[in-house]
Structures are given as C-alpha cells and as structure tokens.
DNA sequence: GTGAAAGCGCTAACAG
DNA sequence: CTGTTAGCGCTTTCAC
C-alpha cells in the first residue's frame, strides 16, 4: 500500500535512481532503451514524484497562499475564481484561508504559509496596517495585494480605482437629474472599500454643488448580513432621497428588499445603483444598475503579476488599476426635477 | 535573506540539531538551560520549522484537497466555509480546486493532490462515476464525499436526504392546497441534485394523486446562469401552475425575476419554494421559502469525519445524512382551491 | 540528556 | 550516457 518511490522505479527498471530522475527532468539525456524501461516501470507502478521532496530541493512548492475575508461574499468568490484559473494555467495550487478580517486568524494563516514554504501570498483582506506590514515583511515571501493597496508601502497591487468608480456612480445619478442622493457605505475605517468610495461620493456631490447631500449616508461594518437594516436607517435619516448609491451589490439587494416591503418602487420613486456587479445582480428585482468591477480579472491578473515577481524578481507596474464600468440596468432612471 | 534552518538555531544555541529538534517535539527531555538557549535562538532568528521536511518524514502534510464544481456557487461557498473552519480547528489547510464538473480538470487536480501528499480528499463534485472511482482508488488517499454519495461503492459521505427534502418541499405545497405544481430541476444525469429531487417531486405527486403534474418540469444543466430562461420554458409548458418548486435558490431567484417581469405576482398568483437556503434567500423579493440544507455543517462535518478516518483508519457511520428543514418565508401561500 | 548518523524522496554535481 | 555521492531540513534511533 506504500506509495512507490523513485527507488522502486529504479529497481524495476534496473537502473539507478538518477537515471529515473533524468527521464523525468531531461529525457533527452537518457538512452532510448533505458528510458523506455524507466517509462514502463513508472507506468506499471503508477509512480508519481513526491512534491514534498522536490520542493525541499527546488525551494519552490508551486503553491500560493491566499487570505481572503470570507469566501461566501460573492465578490470575493469571483476574485478567487479568477485566481484559481490563472493558477492552474501557471502551475500553482492555492491554499485558501478565510480571515474574517481577524488579525489573529490572519497572522496564524500567514505563519502557516511560511512553514509550508508557499511561493507567494495573495493578500485580499483589509488594508495593510503597520503591524500587518511588518509581519508580511518578516515572512520574506512575495506578496500581492488584491483589491486593496497601500500608498505607504511599496507593495504591488491590483484593484480598481475605487474613488473614481464611486465618483462615476454618483455622477451618473446626478447626470440623470437626481439632486437628492444618499449612500450606504462601508465603515470609514476600511480605507479601501469604505473611505475611498465615500470620497468619491463626496467629490461628485461637491463638483455638482450638492453639498447638502453630504450627510445622507449610513455605514455598515464590512459585509453586513442585515443589509435591510442599513437601508432602514438611511431612509429614516433622509426620507426624501430619489437615488441611492450602495457600496456593494449585496447592500443594494438588501435595500431593494427593504424598499419593496415599504411599498416604495424602484426605480420610479427611488433609483438604486450598486457596486461590484456580482453574478446575481442581473436577476435582482429590478435588475440592478451597478458599477462593475472586473473581479475575475482582478484575481487572475493578481496571480499573473505575482508569478512574474516570483520568477523575475520584480514586475513593471507596482500598483495596477483595472478599469471599472457602469452597467445600466433597470434599477435607475432619470429624474424629472 | 535565506530562511533560518534548524542548523542555524543549533549553531546559535551551541547545541546539536537533535537537541533543537527535541525542544520542539518533546521539550521535557531537554535540560532546562539548554532548552532556554534553544528557545532564545529560535526567537532571535524567528525560526519556524519547514513543513516540507517534516512532511517528508511524518508522511503527513496536514493538508486536505478539495474539489468543488464552482466556488462562485453560493451553496458550495457555504460548504467550503464550514470545511475551512473545521480544518483550522483540526490543524489542516485546504487546497481548493474548481472542477467545473470537468473530468480532465478533476483528474488533473486529483493527480496534483497525490503528488502533494495531501492527507485526505474532500470530493464535492458530481456523482462518483466508475472511472472516477477507479481514479480515486488508485490514489490510495482517504476520500470523503460531500453533498454527494455513492450507493455502489463503499465511500463515506455527508449530505442531506435529497429525495426526502424534495418530497417535503412538494408535500408542503400540496398541504397548502396547491394542485397544479411545477418544478425546475437539474438534469437527471446528475444523480444527486437532479435525479433524487426529481424522485421526491414525483413521489409527493403520486402519494397525493397528482400524477397529472408529472410532466410539469423543466431541466437545466448544472448551475445555469440563465435561470430566467428556464422559468420561461416552464411557464410556456404549463401556464396554469399555482406553485413551483425549484432545485436551488438561484433557480428560484431567476424565476422570481422572470415572474416579476411578466407581472405575475408571488405568492398571490404563484408560490415559489427554493432549495438550499443560501444567505441571500432572505432578502429576495419576496423573501424566499426554501428547504434549508445545513450547508456549513455539511462542510464542517465532512472534515471532522475525514479527520477521524485519517487518524483512526475508519469512521463509525459510512453514509451520514444531516437533517434538512423547510423555512417558510413570503414566497409561498396557501391556495384556496 | 545529548550528539552522531541514518534516512524521508528527490535532484544535482561529479566522476567515469 | 550513467551510477555514485552529497545534500535539501528535519526526525529518530543508537550509542555514549
């Protein structure tokens, strides 16, 4: 029942283990009849090289570690899928870990990545706080920030321009004639999905002389499952809004649900624009207008970049921004002031 | 920049590498002052043992491989989350692979699992076809079937009783007074989520003398993203149904979307009951009645079972069934015949 | 108690 | 071209 090793193959093929090793790594350097004997033995024993032993020597495991807040969040699931496909293409396997944005959990996983000698780390969780950065540096393992970035530190990243994307969403609403606009955003302590999108919202308002809307905003912690509750808070705060921008499609779905229950029709009475373009957004009621992130591409691009860093030591572009796009569907309409 | 090894620690602590090894594995057997010296050296160098080297010796990698159709499917995402939490608790890491239900892709990943010496495999994809079974057996690695099972082969599994769950869903509709019932199901070639739920549907009809509804069914291949399309097909086939059972919540969401566009109100004109109880089902419009699978628990239980098989060689219960439950929300109502 | 040495499975000089 | 040998980093006898 023991798995066959290179020795077993060598014995069966009546050659030395180095010859077996050669037929696997540089077949041309082995004379044909011996090579065939080895190949036959490999076939017969169903031999497959032990990746641990190889990894020990090559100091390369072809494994990437990924830390992600929660795989159940469809936005991250899309990114992960992009990572996975690119990884398969480039010969890596992914060790995926959910951090729940918890520091202990994150550090514990990073430690495990180190021990397992992963070739690189895909960091898709939270901004990079100073102590996180230190921990990451201690590991001496290439890191790629995904859907997050850092201006303080020289860490490579792939993401969209969140500030601009939020700006575009709100500007779209304004261009459609809306003058009373609200927002459901993520906590401002989240400097990536929270603060930046808030900034985009504010900038759009200011540039269009709508400063009075500045306080029409409600925040949720991370990926709240009580999204209708956030909607309720916002509507209590500013009942007269005609359009709402949400920082995620989940939030938008909760909002849609809340408005529907209150008998407020979308988009007739209130327009809603989401963020992310998750796969379900086109079967929401009504179909959701949203700013699309190239989530899958963010994931795959991140792996590609990480791979070039692993192989070449560095990459040309440090902070890479992928284009976002507004997908107009049925949840928004123009407002006849 | 090289990672410190046990040798570095030994040198710094002025002891042999065996002593270092001992303080890590049986600290009691090392005299105190030496132990402290070693501990100090470990601290100073930030030394962490190389899991590859250890794995080579112990023949245990504390890694589990999981094959799953598509991580973007929220049902599987929930299962994965359960797996992940249990894995963390039990000291494993997960290598997650999306198969897209593609045989080549699956086999390629299984092969990679073998080479990487994973301690066990979580198989959450497709029924176990004969050639899949053979491949699995060749690996000589413990396998756990998750949300799928096999009656032909002696493979351990964790899932719900799909036939009964579907039966219960349909029986619930019937008990609510519905007599014209339709179903959107998965392809019957899918012996797990397709065939069994179809059987449950049929049995419920037969036991309640509703055989005339037997053909009110439409099938989709796997997790179709054109769920509204399937809904359209069903409504064309049997426009007079008053209740529809869908084999997944995604399908239900697509149906809800389609019905809404056609101006057919749910549940007033048509009741809808889904399957899975994904996290979003409680913010659908209307909130979805569904048969809940304990998805998270299925994932965590699977890891627990696999762990006992890995550690003890076998488990008490081979095929384990977890309870399902009907969650009544707003998408169904009783029918006054 | 502790160091020397063998070995996990494999690759990579190094001779021949 | 191919076998022998020396490791990769760590654990584990086996003597001392």
TrEMBL record, chains A, B:
Signal sequence coordinates: none
Database matches in Pfam families: LacI (PF00356), Peripla_BP_1 (PF00532)
Entry keyword Ubl conjugation: no
InterPro entries assigned to the protein according to its UniProt record, in alphabetical order: HTH_LacI (IPR000843), Lambda_DNA-bd_dom_sf (IPR010982), Peripla_BP/Lac1_sug-bd_dom (IPR001761), Peripla_BP_I (IPR028082)
Protein's UniProt name: LacI family DNA-binding transcriptional regulator
HTH lacI-type domain sequence ranges: 4-58
One GO MF term attached to the UniProt entry: DNA binding
SUPFAM superfamilies attached to this UniProt entry: lambda repressor-like DNA-binding domains (SSF47413), Periplasmic binding protein-like I (SSF53822)
Keywords: DNA-binding, Transcription, Transcription regulation
């Amino acid at each position: 029942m023991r798995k066959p090793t290179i020795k077993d193959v060598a014995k069966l093929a009546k050659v030395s283990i180095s010859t077996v090793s050669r037929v696997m790594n540089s077949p041309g350097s082995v004379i044909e009849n011996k090579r065939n004997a080895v190949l036959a033995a490999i076939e017969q024993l169903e031999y497959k090289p032990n990746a641990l032993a190889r990894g020990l020597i090559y100091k390369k495991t072809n494994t990437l570690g990924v830390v992600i807040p929660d795989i159940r969040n469809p936005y991250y699931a899309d990114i992960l899928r992009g990572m996975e496909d690119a990884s398969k293409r480039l010969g890596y396997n992914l060790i995926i870990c959910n951090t729940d944005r918890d520091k202990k959990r994150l550090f514990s996983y990073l430690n495990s990545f180190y021990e397992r000698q992963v070739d690189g780390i895909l960091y898709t969780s939270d901004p990079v706080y100073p102590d996180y950065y230190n921990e990451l540096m201690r590991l001496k393992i290439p890191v790629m920030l995904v859907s997050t970035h850092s201006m303080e530190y020289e860490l490579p990243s792939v993401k969209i321009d969140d500030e601009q994307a939020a700006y575009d969403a709100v500007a779209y609403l304004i261009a459609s004639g809306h003058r009373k606009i609200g927002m459901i955003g993520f906590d401002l302590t989240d400097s990536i999905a929270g603060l930046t999108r808030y900034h985009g919202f504010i900038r759009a308002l200011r540039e269009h002389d709508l400063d009075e809307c500045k306080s029409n905003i409600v925040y949720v912690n991370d990926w709240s499952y009580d999204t209708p509750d956030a909607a309720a808070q916002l509507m209590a705060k500013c009942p007269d809004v005609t359009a709402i921008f949400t920082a995620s499609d989940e939030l938008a779905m909760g909002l849609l649900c809340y408005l529907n229950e209150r008998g407020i029709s979308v988009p007739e009475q209130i327009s809603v624009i989401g963020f992310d373009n998750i796969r379900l957004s086109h079967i929401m009621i009504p179909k959701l207008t949203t700013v699309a992130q190239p989530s899958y591409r963010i994931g795959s691009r991140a792996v590609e970049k990480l791979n070039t860093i692993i192989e070449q030591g560095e990459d040309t572009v440090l902070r890479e921004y992928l284009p976002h796009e507004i997908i107009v569907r049925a949840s928004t309409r123009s407002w006849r002031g």
